[in-house]
Amino acid sequence: MKTGLQARQTFKVTLHGFFFAMALFILFAALSGVARAAPSEADRIAHAMKAIWDSPEAPLSVEPIVIEGDYALAGWTQLARGGRALLKNRHGEWNVHMCGGDGLNDVETLSMAGMNADAAERLVKNTSAAEAKLPAAVTAKFSTFGENMVVDHNHHPG
User: Fold this and answer.
1) Is 36 within 8 Å of 61 (Cβ atoms)?
2) Which of 55, 92, 50 is nearest to 74 (CA)?
3) Is the peptide bond preceding residue 59 cis, with omega within 30 degrees of 0?
4) Of 5, 43, 100, 112, which has the highest C-beta tally within 10 A?
């Protein structure tokens, strides 16, 4: 039979073990949360586009992605073709608003699509700088899309 002192010591050891186990659990939970950080806005944009057009036989590459407020301009290539997509953030989700080629890298076009002129200028400037870092063979594909077309976020061109 345990004495009162032995019982208190057993309780303390059990309590310390419990707190140590909880501390390890909290540490593990915090570290695993870091590993599963939320995707960046650029990742969310690429995912939105790939959900529509990516396929195993024709993988979609999306770069560069330049964000200005609730709008983003993304270059894309797929096999021998490419283009640009203007995306709009609606209620926290990125949706393709327009598809096109060189015409989407134009302040007037972006303004007509709903952007204010200053934001459109920044988006065009920053997109041009981002595209300049890509190989010429990639950026040449951005011109192959042709005329701009409005894309409803519930429907995409076939």
Assistant:
1) no
2) 50
3) no
4) 100
Dihedral angle of Cα 13, 18, 24, 27, to the nearest 10 degrees: -130
Amino acid identity of residue 5, one-letter, is L
**Pair of tokens at residue 136:** 């010429």
Q: Which two three-digit tokens encode residue 123?
A: 């988006």
**Dist CA 67 CA 122 (whole Å):** 10
Sign of CA dihedral 114, 117, 122, 125: positive
Q: What is the DSSP string of 54-107?
A: -BTTB-EEEEEEEEETTEEEEEEEETTEEEEEEEEEETTEEEEEEEESGGGS-H
Instruction: State pTM to two decimals.
Output: 0.73
52 contacts 96 by C-beta, under 8 angstroms: yes
Quote the tokens at residue 111.
């303004």
Q: What residues have CB less than 8 Å from 62, skipping those under 6 apart?
A: 45, 46, 49, 50, 74, 75, 76
